Amino acid sequence: RLQLHFAVFSRSSFRVTTANSTMAAIYTAPSDQRAFKFGLFDCMGDITTSLFAFCVPCLLVKSNAEAMAEHPLFMCCCVQYPLATWLLRQKLRLTQNIQGDLLDDCWQVMFCSPCALVQLTREIKDIQASK
Questions:
Q1: Average pLDDT, the chain
Q2: Of the candidates 94, 95, 58, the residue with the CA atom closest to the CA atom of residue 73
Q3: For residue 86, what is the enclosing H or E element?
Q4: What are residue 8's DSSP bridge partners?
Q5: What distance in Å separates the CA atoms of residue 52 and residue 118, rounded to the nearest whole number?
Q6: Cα 103 from Cα 63, distance rounded (Å)
Q7: pLDDT at position 80
Q8: Distance CA 11, CA 9 (A)
């Protein structure tokens, strides 16, 4: 049975509804969000991670997915690594209260996937190191 899903995005919230549901899930971003600790184009700050992101991004996505308690096979296909990176960025931003929104992440991943992947990986490493 086919279920229709649609989403409405804005700079501060998103709404997802299904054809079978009269309720909508709404998320509104808190105002006290922090910025990413590492810049999008700060790729050379961690040369090893950068090399992985540019040469074998699938392995880095798999590692990030595991670190974020996602299944290790979480979209590890190389063809879909930008989508996986986008989804993991969303989860990181929401769980760590980081500034940005769905559209910001989308354009960053679309136009500079390796840099977005490096930024995501460095944030995850920093969070793990501070625990």
A1: 77
A2: 58
A3: helix 81-96
A4: 15
A5: 9
A6: 24
A7: 76
A8: 7
